[in-house]
Design a protein that fits this description.
alpha/beta, TIM Barrel, about 40% helix, 7 helices, 8-stranded parallel sheet, single chain
């Protein structure tokens, strides 16, 4: 599994300000648009944030209005019970089309928050398989995405998560290998965003 060193993931405007004040260059930051007010999102875009995750047309439209810097964009997906665009839906098609039409956007991958709510059942391996399948469908339209993101979730049970975490990593690795081999898809970068599935702690 690949890891990105020297980057930081932010979810709120105050987190973003703290990171920049600490000396982290905006281009090394990734931002989750879900947690940002529209005004703050536009300010962040003007600062030159390197990568932005979007989960609604409203967020895409807000970023489209900022004609300043080029941004790498990751589109958030869900199984219909969480934020983001539903897998294999017209809404997702429209969202990807809007990102592709943006002069300042570079669509690089997909992201899924796994089991962010207690009632959700989707697993990390299932999410990886669904995302790579979606990416393979885009490849037929000459669009090759290179990044798979996972975050959130309660996949790791509370308790001895130090043993459960390596098991989760192996499951994700196997799922990526299986999906890529089946579809003959080039292996993407897998990025884990801290959450309950990653840390096994109470804070998402």
């Amino acid at each position: 599994m690949a890891y990105e060193w020297g980057t930081a993931d932010r979810r709120r405007g105050d987190d973003l300000a703290i990171a920049i004040a600490a000396g982290i260059h905006p281009s090394r930051l990734s931002l989750d648009a879900e947690w940002m007010a529209e005004h703050d999102l536009r300010v962040a875009a003007r600062l030159g944030i390197g990568l932005i995750r979007v989960g609604s047309m409203k967020q895409i439209e807000a970023l489209s209005a900022v004609d300043y810097r080029r941004h790498e964009i990751v589109v958030c997906l869900s199984d219909g019970t969480a934020r983001g665009f539903r897998f294999d839906s017209l809404e997702l098609d429209h969202a990807i089309g809007a990102v592709m039409a943006g002069n300042r956007f570079n669509l690089v991958g997909l992201h899924c928050d796994v089991g962010s709510q207690l009632h959700e059942f989707i697993s990390c391996p299932a999410a990886v398989g669904d995302m790579i399948t979606t990416m393979d469908q885009r490849r037929h339209h000459r669009m090759v995405l290179t990044r798979v993101g996972l975050g959130g979730g309660r996949t790791v049970p509370q308790g001895d998560w130090s043993r459960a975490l390596p098991e989760l990593s192996m499951q994700i690795e196997q799922s990526v290998d299986d999906a890529c081999a089946t579809l003959r898809f080039p292996r993407p970068l897998v990025v884990l965003t801290p959450g309950l599935a990653i840390t096994g702690q109470n804070a998402a």
